[in-house]
Amino acid sequence: MKKAVFIAYNQALTERVDYILKQLNIKGFTQWPVVNGAGTFGGEPRMGTHTWPEMNSATLTVVEEEMVPLLLKYVQKLDEVNKENGIRAFVWDITSLY
Amino acid sequence: MSIYSTAVNKPISTLMIFTAILVLGIASYLQLPVDQYPKMDPPYITVMAAYPGANASDIEENVTKILEDQLNSVDELKEMTSTSYDNLSVVSLEFEWEVNLDEASNDVRDAVDKAMQDLPDDMDRPTIMKINTSSMPILIYAVTAKESYPGLDKIIDDKLITRLNRVDGLASAVLSGGPERVVYVDLDPNKLDAYNLTLEQIGSKIQAENMDVASGNVKMGLMDYSLRVEGEFEESDQIKDIVLGTMNNRTIYLHDVATVRDTVKDITLEQTINRRDGGVLMITKQTDANAVEVAEQAKKEIELAKKELPSDIQFQIISDNSRFIIQSVDNLQETLLYALLFVVIVVFLFLGRWRATFIIALTIPISLIVAFIYLFATGESLNMISLSSLSIAIGMVVDDAIVVLENVTKHIDRGSRPREAAKYGTNEVWLSVIVTTLVTVAVFFPLTLVTGMTGIIFKQLGWIVCITIITSTITAISLTPMLCSQLLKLQDKTKLKKHSFYAMSSRALDKLDAFYERLINWVLHHKTVVICSMFGLFGVSVFMARYIQTDFMPMNDQSEMSAYAKMQSGQRVEETKRVALAIDSVIRARIPEINLINLSYGTEEEASTASLMNTTGSNILNMRIRTVEREERDRSVFEIADQMRAIFKEFPEIVEFTVSTGSMGFASNTADIEVIGHDFATTTAVAQRISHEASKFPAVGDIKISRDDDKMELQVVLDQDKLAQHALTTAEIGQYMRNRVYGFRNTKFKEDGEEYDIIVRLDEKYRSSITDVENILITDGHGQKVRLKELGHIREYYSPPTIERKNKQRLLTVSLSPAAGVALGEVAGIAQNIIDNMEDVPQDVTFYIGGSYEDQQESFGSLIMLLLLSLMLVYIVMAAQFESFKMPFIIMMAIPFAFTGVVLALLMTHTSLSVVAALGAVMLVGIVTKNGIVLIDFINLLRERGVPLYEAIAKACRSRLRPVLMTSLTTILGMVPMALSSGEGSETWKPMGIAVIGGMVFSTLITLIIVPAIYAATNKSGNRNKEKKLAKQYLFMEGVEEETLPAVTQ
User: Which end of chain B is more exposed for a tag (fewer CB within 10 A), N or C?
Assistant: First the structure.
């Protein structure tokens, strides 16, 4: 069973997210280098405006189900290094693919 | 790809690009010429025409007017002034700035050629020189000699001046006061009469004998000989034995009717140097040449020439402008280094980290070095203005790098990797960094548009600051992130030592932040009181501004003085010499600081360039004085000059005197009243009235009327009927008289390859009274002898010794220089006042106030224009940045207080407002607004993030205190070395340092208080209104019930 993991994070974490994917041998992904966003629970919005100058990036990757807990674990670890940067991962079901 | 990502991704390329810039910059710096100011002498060409024996009026009529008529049509001519002296006409042509002097001098040469047809026949070709007669020589040497004194003139001319003339850019090198060898043949008219000879016959006879003639070839046998008849005198002694003819079988020798003297010229300008005989060597440069380069070359040539000169000839420097320039530029470079050091210290104190400080400090040399490249590329020089500009820039160039570095550090502290932190940290701030740079450029760019003489100063400053600031911005968004990514490291905060410098400085700064936050909270609750008292303060300073004195350019202490003293008109030179020596003794006794006094009195028979530099006359004493070096004396030359004035006043023989301390013509500090009118008597009378009125004011120091008192002259008035009877013309009589009195000079005595004039004329005792002159015998057209008195009579009359003209109109100037401690503006006010209150001014007389006051007015005028233009541009840039009409006003509220600070600083230090100080004030507009922008920008940001007004202000102020203090302190401390310096030339830039420091300190403090207060006062209900407005725009949401909306979780 495949799952899609959507990871949204501060731009400044790009290289480390790429590193996680590489370490977990995840080859396929789709990346949006520059996206806007804000967290639901605290954290600064990332709007690329004068008020909120920082920006987020997003990566969507489709992986085997057993890979998901590992990926989430690393994402959490990265988040704990410094909460101010902010990184979140969301897991979706993949119903079909070709 | 953006510039900062490229830079971070390619650190080596980035490093190489900046290394290349550094190398280019250092190469340019090493080749930059040194000068006092940017090239500001307008192109000048001077045409000098000597017509010996004519008085000033003749010169004006027969030479000056003719030259002027032709020269007037030369292209690009801006102003033409002329002075007609006795024997000499000088026409000075000032050209438009852009003109090419070589082309112009060709045009001038053509015009002079045309004029030649109308000029008197026996006149030499006028000389054309690329100099401004009002500019002083760049080098003046005293040349003293013992044994070689009688031949000094020739020796120097041969061995030295020919060498000097080869120096590129040197306009003239002349020795004044050296003795000149001539051979006089003094005739006794009675004996001439007895032997039936005339002066002209004798003159021609001497010429006829003094000849070598090649007479063809003689072939004898196998040989071919060339034949020569040789008669040239080998010794001057031979002249007296020339046979003039026979009478009653007796041979008449020349010594029967004349005495022949091989001697030094009778009438000369006498120079003494520390009471020793000698001459003064004056070296002037062409207007477009670099003073320092020419002086250095000239000195080298003098050193080389010394080896060939007799050992008793010694050189002493009287005045050396280049030394002063080099020293002041050195001093300024030193202050620049101190400024750099101070800035680095400030950055270190605030950042507390060595690596960060290094990254910031690196932007300084790079930005400054690009300025050197600019200077080199535009052919400019290292001078007081360009270096002062760099001093100003030095505090500003770090600002952008600091902003970038702070943001990058913020990311690193969050745990980001330095590479990413550098990229994304720069990405977040690069736009606002560019906008703040735009504000500064908005202030400085208009400076480059100023025209005229002041424009030259401002242009350089404007360009240099703009270029350095823009370079610093580019560096801040390329090199700084690159270095951050390479040098900064992830720091573990828990590992920081408690007593590290970083910890200590941040604790101290935290305390300061907390104090400021409390202060702001108090201010916010007492807005009205604070704002009103601030404006009260501003009002007081506006009132106090009236007590500030104004100056054009501060005078520099160059360890030199010159004095001019005029005694009774027509006084014999021996009497002038007696008084001169008496003054010399008194000065030596009373002023211990003096180490060289050069006295010069008397006049040269034939005018030369030397006489252009000073007014000379048998009744005039010119002194040049050199004091010991600045470090070795307590008093400034200005104080010594005051004492000199007191000494001059003790001598009743002196009618008029001036003592001046400036050396370059540019630094002359006078308000000139030009009196324009044709009639000598009326204009002189008016000038004397002005002078009399002005002398009543204690603020007026020296008063000098450019036209000397009328000199008595003798005029031969011929009777035309009698002339006709004797078949003579006025021209013939003129020629006869000229031969007898001035001398018949048509041949030269040659010795050792040198030529000396042989002057045949009547012995002095036969031409030294009116009766003697009337009794001079003239041969008439019928061969009869007739005395001059039978043809007319001699009349005594008065005529002006010099006639000045400007644009073909006669004028004279009354120059008023300020007394010690008085500013030029005040003297100009007095001058204006005198003119306005003049009663019954003759109809054809007009007035005009010129001099350096005119330049000062022009400069201050353009400064005010500049200020307005800067303010408008700053407003435009800020309004665009904040997308608001209101915010720029709040920020610009700090500007008036900068001027309050300038006023206070100038008053407290008794400094007068010179152009340079005013310039500092204009610059404050840019620097001061920067502080306001930083504050407002952050308050706005917090407000948009939804923080309540007062809290937003207090929080923003607290967090922005450090950047504001840091940028202000770097600028202030960058200026401190300038304000405190006391070396050569410091008088010029000190006022700017003082003005900027005063303005910055005051405005920074005020900005920190008044900007938050006004922001609070003008924004009270702003955001609540905004919300209501917004709700009205989204009408489709109106139906939704309040209760159904979920509670907002914060």
Answer: C
Model-level pTM? 0.76
What percent of chain B has a predicted confidence (pLDDT) above 90?
Answer: 5
Reference B719, options B788, B781, B769, B770; nearest CA is B788
Residue of A nearest to B943 (CA): A51
Q: What is the largest CA-CA distance in chain A?
A: 44
CA distance B952 to B939: 6
d(CA B484, CA B359): 7
pLDDT at site B667: 46
> What tokens were used for B274?
């520390």
- From B455, B489, B399, B524, select the one nearest B963 (Cα to Cα): B399
The position carrying tokens 């005395």 is: B787
The Cα–Cα gap between B488 and B490 comes to 7
Regarding an ipTM greater than 0.85, the answer is no
Q: Tokens 């211990």: give the residue.
A: B592
| Partner-chain contact B420 A55, CB within 8 Å | no
Partner-chain residue, chosen from B419, B421, B428, that has the shortest CB–CB distance to A53? B428
Instruction: Give B485-527 pLDDT, tens digit per residue.
Output: 988 876 655 555 666 777 788 888 888 888 998 998 888 888 8
Cα B428 from Cα A48, distance rounded (Å): 8
Per DSSP (E only), the strands in B321-414 are none
In this complex, do A53 and B429 lie within 8 Å of one another by their Cβ atoms?
yes
How is residue B562 written in tokens?
């010159």
Q: Helices H, strands E: what count in chain B?
A: 35, 30
For residue A9, the chain B residues in CB contact (below 8 A) are none
Going by C-beta distance under 8 Å and a sequence separation of 6 or more, which residues neighbour residue B895? B871, B924, B925, B928, B929, B1003
- Type and span of the H or E element at B745: strand B744-751
- Contact status, residue B1013 vs residue B524, Cβ threshold 8 Å: yes
- Which of the residues A41, A54, A77 would you substitute to probe the B interface, choosing the one with the greatest number of B C-beta atoms within 10 Å? A54
Q: What is the 3-state secondary structure (H, E, C) of B653-685?
A: CEEEEEEECCCCHHHCCCEEEEEECCCHHHHHH
- Please report, as a single letter, which amino acid is at residue B678: H
A18 by DSSP, 3-state: which?
helix
**CA–CA distance, B674 with B135 (Å, rounded to integer):** 19
B420–A14 CB contact, under 8 Å: yes
Which of B411, B941, B1049 minimises the CB distance to A51? B941
pLDDT at residue B497, as a whole number: 60
Contact B428 A54 (CB under 8 A): yes
